[in-house]
Structures are given as structure tokens and as C-alpha cells.
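Pinned message: reference record for Trafficking protein particle complex subunit
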Amino acid sequence: MAGIPSVKETATPGLRVPSNGKTIYHRSLNRSRTTELSQASFAYLVLEMVTYAQRRVKGIQELEARLNVQGYPIGVKLLDLLLYREPARTQLRPLSIISLLHLIKQGVWQHLFGRQADRLEKSNNPDTPDEYMIIDNEPLVNQYISVPREMSQLNCAAFVAGVVEGVCDGADFGARVTAHTVAEGDMWPGKTVFLVKFRQEVVDREAFLGKT
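Predicted structure (C-alpha cells):
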């Protein structure tokens, strides 16, 4: 009828809600359990993320710190997602440092990169009983990044270190996680060690639980 505005004309800008009233938040978290992102898409996202961070920093340490911050909230949410998708009988949060690190080495790496991390080690130094190392011989986030010679010390796996740190904090195992390049010749030129340094209160709690 004349004079009656159409739906398109009266629609207000903003969030569009489907006619059935359901949004992405109504979907089951298990719906995308077996869905995989193509490596090309993943590489593009990582490249854009690094480029975005690089334009807003002045040095390598600042860039790695920013990448770490970008990965942190993903780790906090990822822990809950992985536990939610576990069967009810095995839906248990890690209660020890070792169980947490095994969850990261296996579950987190498998979810993010389609494989487990290569090794998990504990520091042999008696002065650093709070340090553990997750080793990835070929981090996927570094495979598509071309680092200039003047930035050869940059390791973009600092983003993954942020994810790991978020998982640790989300599980109430406060830690500081950093990524370090430990190249092994031509075989593993991008080998990276993720150094997990737990807070003293976490180590003390672990020792107390071990005694009881």
C-alpha cells in the first residue's frame, strides 16, 4: 500500500538477528568439533595479526609481548572449550602441573595444529624447579612468516606462548610463558622451546599436595 514504508526502509543499522531469533551463540559448541581451518586461511590470519602488531611497536621485544597478549585470551577460553567437549566421565580439570602440561602438549596442540607438541621436559637445574619446556620442532605459526635479517631474533611463536599462558592461568596454575628459538641446523631451523615458568605459590601448592 502507498505510504507504508518497506521493511528495508525501517530497518535500523546494527546487529542483524535471524528471523528465528537464534544467533551463533545458540549453536552447540560441539557443532564445529571436527571442523578444520585450511592452512592458507590460518597463514593469512597469522600474517595479518603479526603485521597489525608490528605497525604499533618499536622493537622486537615489544612485538613479541604484543603477540603474547593477543594469544592469552584465546588460551583462557580454549581450556573451557576442550573440557566442555570431553565426555562427562573424563571432564576433569587438571589438578597437577604434569597433568596440565600433558593437556597442553596433547590436547591444546592437537586442537590448534592437528598434532601434538614434540616433547615435554622439566628443567634439570635444581635452582629452577618451577621451569618446564614444551618443544615444537616446527611451529606452524612460523612457517609462513618471512622475518627480515635485522629482526632475525623475532619468534612469532610468542603468540602461541600467550595461548599456553592463558591455559595455565585459566586452570589456576599461574605461569609466565615465553618462546625461544633453539635452531638445530638444517633439520629444525625453527625449533622453538616454550619456557613455562610457574609462580612460586603454584610450586609450593604442588609440593604440599605431593606430601599429602
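Pinned by admin. Summary line: The beta strands are 119-122, 131-136, 175-181, 192-198.
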